Amino acid sequence: MATDLKQRAMDAFVDDHLELAVDLYSQAIAISPTNAELFADRAQANIKLKNLPEAVSDANKAIELDPSMSKAYLRKATACMKLEEYQTAKAALETGASLAPGDSRFADLIRECDQRIAEETGDMQNEVSEEPPIEVVSQKDVQPETSVLSEVAVAAAPKPKYRHEFYQKPEEGVVTIFAKRVPAENVTIDFGEQILSVTIDVPGEEAYQFQPRLFGKIIPDKCKYEVLSTKVEIHLAKAEPIQWTSLEFSGQSAVPVRVISSATGSQRPTYPSSKPTKDWDKLEAEVKKEEKEEKLDGDAALNKFFREIYADADEDTRRAMKKSFVESNGTVLSTNWKEVGSKKVEGSPPDGMEMKKWEL
């Protein structure tokens, strides 16, 4: 049955009935889920349909089932190159070339990847050296991209089986998929340069697939995930410390804001601004220094002196100061608790003056 479906799928592919081909391959896979050939062939049909994340997922599954299948690496590389993930594509091509040394397609595509990677590296170096101000720009002010990605149609999808959430920090994004009691062995997660592929395949249930094209690039080797009792938590290591406006890439996304964080983590982050930035910590320190060195006269100087004593005093000294000041109606200020703690402090007016008791 699976063989017949595969042949019909191949015929549909040749006749350019690509959606039918994908459907027939999917039916064949349902019957024979460990057949690596079926996944590799469906990957090719998905590439033609420009379903690029799905093509990468199919190629990864084919490689998992048969690591010696050179064409699976070729399909993965082709999809990744269209997604502009040249480092991931090159790694797949190098493995495929070692399995099929006589196939010149691998060498040709590796050279193309090297060229694209060099161009990207050059562009990044230019951006770093120039350090232009970065602002949030409305999409209407940005010219539409002409790459293959901008031509990929986004089809309406049914409500997913599991709910997911996304939050981020400057250095990483965290994706949480709320899936209860899913065995870790039934979760497969792959990371590309700008793609996340999640598959949760529990026997007896329809497989869940989540394959977003990410807003920004990530570092696959530094990404990690954990399968917990109530969720799957995925940590995406960002290639650049920028604020993503969303998890998924979209032609409507605004230009990201770069967040420059301190290497030691002890300083506050700074953000692009048209106005000169102020070091508020420095200003606060200067104000405190000026207050301490301020020259005062008369009662102001005396009050300042008493405030400084109180601020630096221990608990007994503070109690003595409060008690003596209150009980003496502001005429005595003692710092000796042993002296004033056991008796009432009588008022002591200055020479030439007398105390009067006010009656209400």
TrEMBL record:
The keyword Repeat applies. Residues 341-360 are annotated as: Disordered. Residues 159-248 form the CS domain. TPR repeats lie at residues 36-69. It comes from the Eukaryota. GO terms for molecular function: protein-folding chaperone binding. Pfam families: CS, SGS, TPR_8. Keywords: Repeat, TPR repeat. InterPro entries: CS_dom, HSP20-like_chaperone, SGS_dom, Sgt1-like, TPR-like_helical_dom_sf, TPR_rpt. The keyword Repeat applies. Residues 270-360 form the SGS domain. One of its GO terms (biological process) is response to stress. Belongs to the SGT1 family. This is Protein SGT1 homolog. It comes from Dipteronia sinensis.
